[in-house]
Amino acid sequence: MLLVEKKSLKVGKFVNTDHVNTVIKNYKQERWVNNSKHIGKEDSLSAWLSIEEMEEFIAKAKDQGGDGIRVYFAAYSEDYAEQPLYAGRQTIVLVGTKHKKDESGLAANKDIYISTDKGTGILAYNSVLICPPFCKPKGIDDGNDVGITLVDKGEDGLVVV
């Protein structure tokens, strides 16, 4: 019997609280301030979806031969009618992928396209909860907040996020 060893595609790693606080603080100071100024309101800082949704999406990707998920940073249009509070804010889109090698042997993670009753389309997931606008009410401290950051908005003052 011929055994084929499957090579791991892992690229990330588990990180600690300091790392999380640092990269979020960097984002807030380097991107969030400008994004918020550009859209004229606080941009989203996070996106949330349930484990149930993630597992369902992973299962669907696997059923289609997928072995990875690409997370796209995205933004809703200014006139997004489906959820007006999301209009102009950033979000994430999950896309199922399959690791493949081209003719020259170069590896790439290709987006998965599936057949549906409406034709061929990308295997993707969006419409997650974004914060803002959907955050826990102010004053509720569940002990799980990720670091507070003071952000200097120049002439517009300071903001705590």
What does this structure look like?
The structure is a single chain. The chain is of the alpha+beta class and 161 residues long. It has a domain at 41-135. Helices cover 22% and strands 29% of the residues. The protein contains two helices and ten strands. It has helices at residues 17-39, 51-63, and strands at 46-48, 68-75, 90-101, 107-111, 113-116, 119-122, 124-125, 129-131, 150-152, 158-160. Strands 2, 3, 4 and 7 form a four-stranded antiparallel beta sheet that branches. The chain has a two-stranded antiparallel sheet with strand order 1-8. The chain has a two-stranded antiparallel sheet with strand order 5-6. A hairpin with a 5-residue loop joins strand 3 and strand 4. It is globular and about 70 Å long. The chain starts with 16 loop residues before the first helix and ends with a strand. The mean pLDDT is 88.
Strand-residue proportion: 25-35%
What is the makeup of the main sheet?
A: 4 strands, antiparallel
- How much helix is in the residues? 10-25%
Task: Write down how many β-strands occur, each being a DSSP E stretch of 2 or more residues.
Answer: 10
Quote the distance from N terminus to C terminus: 59 Å
Low-pLDDT residue intervals, each spanning 5 or more residues: none
Total helix count? 2
Q: Provide the residue-averaged pLDDT.
A: 88
